[in-house]
Specification:
heterotetramer, A: three-stranded antiparallel beta sheet, 16 helices, 12 strands, 11% strand, B: alpha/beta, seven-stranded mixed beta sheet, four-stranded antiparallel beta sheet, 14 helices, globular, binds pyridoxal-5'-phosphate
């Protein structure tokens, strides 16, 4: 296609007077806005909304879509993101008009189906995590963390324990952890990792005082390692009067194998858009459902779904509730998908998924560690972290270069520069839905990149060349931010 | 047999042997025995698609629908067929956050368009890639006000904002040493006279909403000047569909505009997913919460889009980030973008006007023919509040039998509101027959 | 305002001026006044999507569904979710016939896979890109037999083929100087002894069907040898789902295999679209009807697929073409391909076996518990025929009240059949409860 | 992506023992096939059906799809094909489960909705064509032609007029026309076009004898020209005792402007997948609905949809019917789309569509005729034909080269080498759904190609180079046909 039609913004396709949508004929008297409402309330500014036909809209976004990678096109070895396959049946059930058409404030007796689903889902997520009840309202993982921190707050407030202002977060934690603790009114204190890549119990002990509200952990941690001292850590924190928060982003490693509740956690958030296969949608919507044990159940956000006899209802009457955390009840369409997935997989499938996720990760790790530096060389769970530091020192090829080279080969990049405790970190999470040949192809490509790093590093710096755009100037974007299109 | 698990037994064996272990169990040997989960999860076994589908279909059919006059933040609008067709493109919905711009121009450009649309609708200069919903957007907006003003500790808000927004605000700020002060209403709108009394240099901002929870439009003439005198910010929440006809936040002089874009092509879906939008003046850009897409160029000088100003965000700034948000509502924002592209400039105007025309038709007819009164004599968009001679919940309950969801009894959202208030929303989808049926039905219910 | 018509008034004016005319009407001035259409078509005005959707939804809801034991060429099977997801890819469904292979490898490769699958299932060597349906495929197969044998003027067919296939054959051959001779049945299957009597060098082929219209499996042992002795071809029509378990056409020695692939992932959809499949021996390739995809290489030596042997087709050969077919059922054939890829080798076997198991369960239960008889004591796959003591249509009518479509009364397809025959299909979707309800219901109906 | 995963056939992705589909658990006694049916009836051959996971299936066909051009990606100036935009609402209505789940033999009183649709659609198509009733059963245009020919046959048989064995077909006709006439038992006789590109009335008159069954015409004809003598032609044929068949593939030019019935045609087929916007699906399914006048109504194929009081039914009782032409009632899902389209467009929209289709064609024609030879230079209807003959003679660039160059520019090729009466024919049909800028882009590209033909013809012979594959060796494909994959 010639450039005339290519690479335009929808606004640049606009033609004055063109229409792409027919509004139904008005069946009540036509009155001008100013006949109904005083002019001072009315809009004066014209908008530059596009003026395009339906054909324009469809072609524009169809072409745009083809500039995008996605799970249905290939492998995402993206650590901490659990980019597993998003089953198609989930999309079918989520599209059922009996769900999609529901207003959040319609009478609850006309909403028994969706309430049952929410109840059932909560129950199942509790079983998987070993907790007692929960909330499906958080819109994403970070929102779940915030909710978790509010559980902490409510719990200590209820006990009149106002001095507990400190939340511990490991240096390997995801950025949302400290941020969530902070916006919930906690002071964040970093706990160090030990030489094994695990929480240092020694360091932890330094922080166990009367100001301790609790700790946020993920297990397996962001290095993909199971925290071997988790039992002791839980005991220590509880003994010090603190609570334990479980960041469930990494649950995909341990379903049916180990439950946060059994580890000693008091509150758990889950990323249904990771472990439970709901699609990422280019960045959302997800769901950060939160499960708690009996101790924290009184503080659930309002409302929570409950059952009375055979009737399901939204319980707003929670005396010690932390309050409301979202407008309505969360990303319901995401919940329908997650529920569908759990039914499809069953106890046996979920466990098998974790087993194979761990198998895939260890297989990749073993096949790559000869060519890339593996800072923590032990059995991993669902993911593992390599470092490009040595490559960088030797050939000037860094983590970004490896990431961008993968794009050239038609594979998504790993997560890079996280966790922060590994220099030039590259974090790989294959998930259970990648097949052996997909992994082998990836290994082959990674070896090829390692070869190139030695033989022709400049070629790597040039990559990617065959993608819809090449490396993008991030500095210019941040220095002179242009965050909207402007008409000429 | 699990259709999403591709491993054959043979492959598993070979892979184990390559790893150098004998069994998968060995890979889990690092889990301390004490806390290892023994036995099986108490869940049913996996099922086939047919069985799962049958179960979900039964659940879906256990919900009932009716001709809906429900609003209060979630509306029954037309969704053009383009929206579903394009949101259903797997390149969009199964893609990850566009951290790799080289292979994510589809999502990035669409979000850039979304940001532009939000700026245009609100008459403000910058916008982000989306927040969770309109209610949490209010908290983020207030936090933005606090973070971008100096030595402030107070947020004022109007009592006419959505009660749920209020409740979310309370949860959000409860532990943050920020005072929330509610300003009173007068005849169904913010009592603007009360603003002055509460204003001071400690005030970060004032949050108002128009159309407000009653559906009424509020008059903010002079308000931004007043606030700006105290270096306070004006935050205005609006139903974005209304912005096709009513004065936009920027036109009122607001510093921050927020709201919920569910009306733009998203199914009601029991409340979610929707999108919280936020737009603001240029100078607030570097304090904005959430992801932002910026325009740049690639190595060949070609226009390209990229996530930008990430230094604001939690994965870089950690506890000092402007917000903790990470995943947002990207796909839903794409839906909004497709919606707005489809209905276009004239379409949005026409739709907004039809909403207004239909709501006014019903409101007038109700007053004339059913003898009911509006709670206040104020201008409104597509929603208005009736002050009924009986409990609103009872009237609504009675009308349900006629296949009508009559509206939202306001005390259901906020127990402190009188129990006779019913907020009625009328979108372009409601036909004159449905409205006439409404009038007949309420007459019956009031008898 | 029409959303699919992009022209603005200004553009129209400019374009007219570039053409050098003053009005669009001028462009129609070449239509002789005498036959020009004056006035307007007597159709309603254009409508909005919402109005159109509402109308269509009403129509859709004016159809009723029930637990279905209907078959006779169209079956209620599981459709995996992959099928809809992938058939819904716009690159497939809005593309044209792949005449330009450089930009059509998606469709071409999928059809090549379809051809391979059909060859595999039928145990034959070549196949085409699809025909309209299983019934018209029979006509094409018989024409192929005539065209590829010398000096023949007769087609034999079994009286046990689908009556509609028979009727389509009659229409097709009525004006072609080809005799159609029906061979008798015996106890619900072709009386193979009758073949010999009718065979001669003038016979192009014999068309048989198994499972036949009663659901019975037929025994073709020795039949192909017999036919080949007379240089006649054996054409066997089979429900392809059955081929997961029963002897395939190639295994019987057939020269041509046909049938209808609706069971493979296509919704019943009141009978269409489905796909007529055809497969044949290698030596019939150049006489095959319809499009064929072949493997080749591009200029860089890369494997590529392309429509091939087009010299057979109408757009080259015109009246001497092997068939008049042009557009076929490509998208539906893609659906079949996705279906078969999804269920896979083991899945198809399992499904075929479940069909057989369930049909046998119901047939036995009906005989034991409801005291009804099978019309013949023959092996069957997923469909069998009851010989009822009353009119089949009456029984089916009575069972409809229990929410069951009990089967197809055979005289509805062919008035010459006895009116007490009811053909019952049982797919993998029917549950044991539904079958038990069936037994209860028929007992009631028979009382 | 490395070649390991690319460009494979689904069979080549197969791994023994892999599964992509779970069959519901059996709820009746499990018996082996040979326990139910004698072994001689059972399959022995193994199949090479793929053994792949759901993930494999989705990725395989998603990637394949991206190797395909389509209307939603761009312009198809494909003459005689009416590749207009396929509205999305049509897909929504066609997916309604109330239609999709219907068995063709379910009781008609449970099928009133679909029968009403079929009735209504027939009525509307009759109005558009000026005919009296019709059948929706033909699966495609060619099938409609066959049906039309069977109307001819039935009509003459009914009259005992057995000598009418000859059907006239213009030399410009689509290949399906003579093929359909032939397989219906007619002798095909070609009628010549005159110097204006229209049916030569002189030549026609040579064929008007007692053997004449009738004539098949399309109007506008395949050159996109309205047959100016159509009135006279109809009279002549009728006078000679013949019938007139209208190939409706070109109806998009004249909706609301001129009706085949008014022109004098007795039977009309429509390509609903052209004029009525239903998608082509990579080659089908379409619908070749056939409409007839009163004279031919008695011969409709059985069954036909009728109405009695407020009840719709399938009438099988047609004494003079031509018989059955398809298994059930046609491609119903296609009919739902066409009906949706007609409701959306209305009388005003259909007429406007034809007007703009003709506007677009004339605009293109005027803008291209300076650079490409236009053999018939007069006002056209929805399409027009250029010739590359001069280009070929001058620079060795033929119609195929132009077609392939367009692919390089991201635009579909025109129809080439048809109609046969123009050397190196290139047939352009823009349809009404292409916007001005889409046409202008196309014109620009066509000019660039014309420039290249003069300056650098070899470059054109090389094209396309950036498509998923380059020019394909058709000779090898036909010489050594490989029409199925073979396991190694
Ligand atoms: C370990 C961890 N915690 C929390 C999150 C935040 O989840 P979300 O993006 O859903 O807010 C992530 C997301 O990447 C994560 O990897
Ligand atoms: C003029 C003309 N007639 C008939 C046909 C045949 O239609 P179908 O492909 O639907 O059989 C075509 C198709 O291209 C055509 O262009």
């Amino acid at each position: 296609m010639s450039t005339q039609l290519k690479n335009k913004l929808i606004f640049e396709r606009s033609r004055e007077g063109r229409r792409g949508f027919r509004v139904p004929d008005l069946d009540v008297p036509a009155r001008k806005p100013e006949e109904m409402v005083d002019k001072k309330y009315l809009r004066v500014n014209e908008t530059v909304l596009p003026e395009v036909s339906e054909v324009d809209v469809i072609r524009h976004y169809t072409r745009l879509s083809q500039k995008n990678y996605c799970v249905d096109l290939g492998f995402y070895p993206l650590g901490s993101c659990t980019m597993k396959y998003n089953p198609k049946i989930n999309e079918v059930t989520a599209a059922l008009p009996g769900f999609a058409g529901m207003h959040p404030l319609q009478p609850q007796k006309t909403a028994q189906g969706i309430l049952e689903l929410m109840y059932d889902l909560t129950e199942r997520l509790c079983e998987v995590t070993g907790m007692s009840w929960g909330t499906l309202q958080p819109f994403a993982g970070a929102h779940g963390e915030f909710t978790g921190m509010k559980f902490f707050k409510s719990y200590f407030k209820k006990r009149g324990d106002f001095g507990r202002t400190k939340v511990l977060v490991p240096d390997s934690a995801h950025g949302t952890n400290p941020a969530s603790a902070h916006i919930s009114g906690f002071d964040v204190v970093e706990v160090k990792s030990n030489e094994k890549g695990m929480v240092s119990v020694e360091d932890l002990k330094q922080h166990l005082d009367e100001n301790l509200a609790g700790i946020m952990l993920t297990n397996p941690n962001t290095l993909g390692l199971y925290e071997e001292d988790i039992g002791e850590i839980a005991e220590l924190v509880h003994e010090a009067g603190g609570l334990l928060y479980y960041d469930g982003a990494n649950l995909n490693a341990i379903m049916g194998k180990s439950r946060p509740g059994d580890m000693g956690f008091d509150v758990v958030h889950l990323n249904l858009h990771k472990t439970f296969s709901t699609p990422h949608g280019g960045g959302g919507p997800g769901s950060g459902a939160v499960m708690v044990n009996k101790k924290l159940e009184p503080f659930l956000p309002a409302p929570t779904v409950r059952k009375r006899g055979s009737e399901y209802y939204l319980d707003h009457d929670i005396p010690d509730t932390m309050g409301r955390i979202s407008g309505f009840y969360g990303n319901i369409a995401v919940l329908v998908r997650a529920y569908t997935y759990i039914l499809t997989m069953g106890y046996d499938g979920l466990k098998r998924a974790s087993e194979l996720a761990v198998l895939n990760a260890n297989y990749l790790k073993e096949k790559l560690k000869g060519r890339y530096f593996l800072p923590y060389d032990r059995v991993c769970k669902h993911e593992f972290v390599l470092s490009a530091q040595k490559m960088k020192d030797a050939y000037g090829v860094n983590g970004t270069d490896v990431a961008k080279a993968l794009l050239e080969f038609g594979i998504h990049a790993p997560t890079v520069y996280f966790p922060l405790i590994v220099h030039e970190a590259m974090m790989f999470e294959p998930t259970e839905t990648e097949s052996r040949e997909s992994l082998d192809n990836f290994i082959e490509v990674m070896h090829e990149i390692a070869d190139l790093a030695e033989k022709d590093p400049d070629k790597l710096h040039e990559m990617p060349t065959s993608t819809p755009v090449r490396r993008v100037d991030q500095v210019q974007a941040a220095k002179h931010p242009v965050v909207r299109w402007q008409p000429e | 047999m699990f259709p999403y698990l591709p491993h054959t037994d043979k492959e598993i064996k070979e892979m184990l042997s390559d790893i150098g272990v004998d069994s998968i169990d060995e890979l889990f040997a690092d889990i301390p025995a004490k806390i290892r989960f023994k036995g099986e999860l108490k869940l049913p076994q996996g099922q086939s698609e047919l069985e799962v589908y049958t179960r979900l279909k039964t659940l879906a059919e256990n919900n009932q629908q009716a001709v809906s006059f429900l609003g209060a933040g979630n509306y029954d609008h037309i969704i053009p067929s383009t929206v579903g067709a394009l949101m259903g493109r797997t390149e969009f919905y199964t893609s990850y956050t566009p951290y790799q711009p080289e292979i994510s121009q589809g999502v990035l450009q669409a979000i850039f368009e979304f940001q532009t649309l939000m700026c245009e609708l609100t008459s403000l200069q910058v916008s982000n890639a989306s927040l969770y919903d309109g209610h949490t957007a209010a908290s983020e907006a207030c936090a933005l006000a606090v973070n971008s003003t100096r030595k402030t500790d107070t947020i004022l808000y109007s009592s006419t904002i959505h009660p749920y927004t209020k409740q979310v605000l309370e949860t959000y700020f409860e532990d943050l040493k920020i005072k929330l002060v509610e300003l009173p209403e007068k005849e169904g709108v913010l009592d603007t006279d009360s603003v002055k009394a509460q204003l001071g240099d400690n005030v970060a901002g004032l949050l108002v909403q128009s159309p407000n929870i009653y559906g009424n439009l509020e008059d903010y003439t002079g308000l931004s000047d007043l606030l700006h005198e105290h270096k306070s910010l004006l935050i205005v929440s609006s139903n974005p569909m209304a912005l096709g006809a009513i004065k936009s936040q920027g036109e009122w002089g607001a510093d921050i505009a927020i709201g919920d874009t569910q009306p733009f092509g998203l199914p009601a879906y029991y409340g979610g997913p929707s999108v919280g939008y936020i737009a603001a003046t240029e100078k607030l850009l570097r304090k904005m919460p959430g992801r932002i897409v910026g325009q740049s160029v690639d190595e060949d000088g070609k226009r390209a889009f990229v996530l930008t100003l990430q230094a604001r965000e939690q994965h870089i700034k950690r506890e000092r980030a402007t917000s903790n948000i990470c995943s947002n509502q990207a796909l839903a924002a794409l839906g909004n973008t497709i919606y707005l592209a489809t209905v276009g400039k004239e379409g949005l105007k026409e739709l907004a006007e039809q909403n207004m025309q239909k709501a006014h038709y019903l409101a007038e007819k109700l007053q004339k023919e059913a003898g009911v009164k509006l709670a206040a004599d104020q201008p409104f968009f597509n929603e208005f509040t009736l002050a009924l001679p009986k409990k609103a919940a009872d009237i609504a309950g009675a009308m349900e039998a006629d296949g009508i969801f009559a509206g939202v009894p306001l005390n259901q959202l906020d127990a402190s509101k009188p129990d006779n208030l019913l907020t009625v929303a009328v979108t372009e989808k409601r036909t004159v027959e449905e409205m006439d049926r409404y009038v007949q039905s309420i007459k019956g219910a009031l008898k």
